[in-house]
């Protein structure tokens, strides 16, 4: 076993190098971050480019499902909004079918 003596600055530099290597290795092994599955009303409006009254109408008509969170926010499932947009495009490009 080899004993090495380091100054505090050398030790800190060695730690920085090792942590940098570990973080770089982790970045290559972790899956890419995915977007949030549930969107707030504002995020949903930005995602589907509709007005709030139109989104509320779609929700009332049952075309888009809204979920209530524990903090009383209304949330929308990103995948469902994307499916709605895709269906609307197939029916002629109008967002409100």
Automatic annotation (TrEMBL):
InterPro entries: DNA-bd_dom_put_sf (IPR009061), HTH_17 (IPR041657)
Pfam family of the protein (one): HTH_17
Residue stretches making up the Helix-turn-helix domain: 38-87
Record's protein name: Helix-turn-helix domain-containing protein
Organism whose genome encodes this protein: Hymenobacter volaticus
